[in-house]
Every structure is written in structure tokens, then in C-alpha cells.
Amino acid sequence: MRIVDVQIAGRAYPIFIGRGARRQIADELRRLGGVETVAIIADQTVADLHLPKLLEAFPKPPVQLFVQPGEASKSLDAAARLYDGLAEARLGRKDVIVTFGGGVACDLGGFVAATWLRGVRFIQVATSLEASIDASVGGKTAVNHSTAKNLIGVFHQPSAVIVDLDFLGSLPEREIQAGLAESVKQAAVRDAEFFAWHEANVSAILGRSPDALMHLISRNCQIKAEIVARDEREENLRAILNHGHTIGHALEHLLHYELRHGECVALGMLVENELAVARGLLPRGVAERVQTLLHRLGLRTCLPRELATEDVLAACRLDKKNRAGAIHCVLLSAIGAPQVVGGVADAEIVAALAVVAPK
Ligand SMILES: NC(=O)c1ccc[n+]([C@@H]2O[C@H](COP(=O)([O-])OP(=O)(O)OC[C@H]3O[C@@H](n4cnc5c(N)ncnc54)[C@H](O)[C@@H]3O)[C@@H](O)[C@H]2O)c1
Ligand SMILES: [Zn+2]
Question: Is 148 in the pocket of ligand 1 (CB under 6 A)?
Fold first, then answer.
């Protein structure tokens, strides 16, 4: 097992990664102290597959609350149902919530933990690749608004994160691929060597070699932990993690979640790289290298259907990074060299979208 520490002053926490990492739960609850009741907030699909195994790790049976799988559960309605469950369980100030599932369970469960009694402690047990390398770490919690994703949220750091590789075994291939897009993004903005490691290890990664998965998850957690420790509230450095996300979130909103978050991020990276090439910021060869890697990892490199460009532009304007209506993107000038660019013109986005035109 590996442990990656997230060193946020006064609120440092460990990420446990490995087979059987769930067995850390009892120790963590003891370490937190004063816990009488624990409530699990679990994705229903994940619970059906793995809840008995998770429950073995608890010193006494927790309260169990379930959410329907899928992005639609990141809603205030779903949160309200969970608050009802917490009220019934009388979950108190010193008690703990454990989230169990992918990014949806992490974000929704974290949001509920952040707001219940003005914030109770929580442990993330991440079961998708996306959640293991990104959503569970860093304390961004949120639900969606009908106009855009993640508009309603709170920063609230977990007390621990657990990535048990035993749970990841049941992930459908498409979910692995979607998570890999986020891994390529983190490597692209922060670690050229790690990017090259992806290129050299495509078959081990897709074959889910335990060593490859362990390295992939640990390195991503280190990258995310280092960035979050330096800029918890996204005042500067953390914004680089939004590479591919200005366009990616817009596509995700328009395609009504028919594509996975990671799949949209992959398309978003391609469009934003094309934009950077057009600005003379990024050499075309580097954009092609990213495209080739995403393709080899099984990610789609074109839209599933035609989208109206006005709709894409309108969706981009809803992005939280924008100020005064100007569209911001995180563009690369090389692998490992990102920069936040403001005032991206509509025409630039329209031109760059051609790179992902449906075939
Ligand atoms: N807070 C953050 O910093 C952050 C970062 C990245 C992404 N996110 C959010 O995460 C969400 C996407 O996460 P996701 O891709 O994990 O989505 P998800 O939670 O919907 O999980 C994807 C699917 O995989 C299933 N699943 C999860 N674990 C499984 C397992 N072990 N075996 C079988 N099936 C399993 C789920 O039931 C679901 O159907 C988005 O809402 C995104 O906004 C948040
Ligand atoms: Zn993302």
C-alpha cells in the first residue's frame, strides 16, 4: 500500500492506495476520535457490487444511505433526501460521513458533509478511476445547477481518502478510459515525464496491470496533492487543472451527459490545444502527440454528433473561470507548461472546434 499525504496546513490528510486499503477505515475512525455514528453515502451500483466487503472494515455497522448512479444525482434534491437520512440517524457534529462510489458520490457526499451541521468530517472511498485520481482529492464538493455543472458547492477537505484497488476491478472499460483522460490532463499540465510514461505503457494501463494502475493512481494523487496544498482555493496554481475543462464542461452540458465527464475533457483538451496551436503558442507536433495518446487509450477524438456552435459558446460562457463574460481557457505551450489565457474570442473557439468535428 502507498500513502500520499495532502499537506494542507492544519488539515493534512492521507490518501491510502492499494489492495485492501479499505482496512484503514477502522484506524482512521479511531484517529479522528469522538465518533459515535458513521453514515455511508453510497452509489447504488457500487453498493450492490462491493458494500459487504466495505462493511467488514467498520468496527460497528454504519448507517447506509444510497444514491442512484449517474450525474443527475448531483442535485439539491438528492442532497435533500440525504439530509433526511442524516436527520433520522441523528448524525452529530463529531460524527463521520463515508462516501462510497465514483466522482458523483464524492462530490454529492462531500457537499452534504460540508453543509450538514455547517460541516462534518468525511472520508472518501473512491471506486472509479476518475474519483481515485481526481474527484476524491482536494476538497471541491458540489452539486449541479440546471444551467451548468458544479455551480453550487463548497470547499471542504476530507479527513482521509481510500483508493482500494479491489473495488476498481469491476469498473467497465469505458469508465477506465474516461478516468485516463483526466490522468493525461494532469500529466500534460504538470509532469512531462509522467506523460511519456503513459505513452510507453498504454497496453499495461489498458490491461489493468496492478503495477501500472498503482503508479498511475499514486502519481496523479501526488500531483493533485502538491497543487492543492499550494493553492487550496484555486486562487492561482490550481486553475491549471482546468485544462480541457472550459470546452469539456460545455460539451458535457450540451451532450446531456451522454458522454462521460472524462470523455468530454479529452475532447476539450483537443479543442483547447488546437486553439493554442492557432495562437502560435503550442507546436502542432505536441497537439498531435496528445491526440495520439488519447486515441491509443481508447478515447474518442471526435464529437458523437453535430453541435450548434452558438450553443457551445453559450455553454462556455457559463464556466466558473470566466470574468465579465470573457472566456478563459488553460492552454499549453508545451507538455508540463500550462497558462491561464483570458479573453478567448468566439471565432477562435469556433475554428478550433473543427478538430473534433463528427466523422
Ligand atoms: N471534485 C472534484 O475535484 C472533481 C474532479 C473531477 C471530477 N469530478 C466530478 O466527478 C464526476 C465524474 O466522476 P465519475 O466518472 O467517477 O462518475 P460516476 O460517479 O458517475 O461513476 C461512473 C459510473 O461508474 C460506476 N462505478 C463507480 N465505481 C464503480 C466500480 N468500482 N465498479 C463498477 N461500477 C462503478 C458508477 O455507478 C457510475 O455509473 C463528475 O460529476 C465530475 O464533475 C469532481
Ligand atoms: Zn475533470
Answer: no
